[in-house]
Specification:
It is a single chain. The protein is α/β, with parallel strands linked by helices and 263 residues long. It is built from nine helices and ten strands. The strands form two sheets. Strands 3-2-1-4-5-10-6 form a seven-stranded mixed β-sheet, sandwiched between helices. Strands 7-9-8 form a three-stranded antiparallel β-sheet. Helix 6 runs antiparallel to helix 9. It is globular.
Amino acid sequence: MTEQTNEDIRWANYREANGRFPHVRLAEMKETLKRANVHQGETVLEVGTGNGYLTFPLASAAGWKGKILTFDTTHKNLAAMMLRNIDALQIIPIPQSTSYLFPVPEGHADAIVTLATFHHYDERSTGTTGRMKALREFYRMLKPGGRLVIADPAKGTPTQRYFDAVDTPVHCHPRGHPHDFVAKEEMLTLCKNAGFKDAQFEVVETPWVFNDEEEAKTFIHQLHNSQCTPEESLALAKKHLNYELTAEGVKLGWSLFYLVAKK
């Protein structure tokens, strides 16, 4: 039996948190689907499978005549997602290398969609070098007129400040969260330099919603594979994100930018 690495455990906890509480990030998923506007029969590339919470809605939208090519650098994310594909939707899992090269022909995709993954192409030391490489690949893989949809944290927002705060192995084990984020003008410039046109950038409130505080505490702690206490994980989120008790439960302030562009 293969021994689990720290990264294996981290991603297993990430998958479990999203799987146990699928309603928490529903606003992110709905907003992304709205902008992706996937039609029956389309070929869609998803970058960043995670636990498949966006993969399956994309596949349902594309239907049996369409297909979803979903990429992830963590092979166990892809394997776990496919075990959940009990309806045999047209999903093709593809391990993604760190070379930013995708084994996809030029002009193959109607759309490319990525949710909360784009920042992983760079760490703070590499600036936007990796994201520029990825954008050029996205452009290459899209059909003329094809659309790109990126949802990710934006620089200068509470979401970014929260991620900066969990950049320690104590709050996000084993490596922290050593990634920086981009602001509007920087993102629009990157897209233009990659060849995209008609780029639109908007920061959207996509709150995380919980039934109660205990659920919020469990989700946040498990999502980041934290090594502190669940109470400490929640306290850090409360410090950097708007925390609101509602009649329905708990709402945690969260926002992402949505970038939509065309080839």
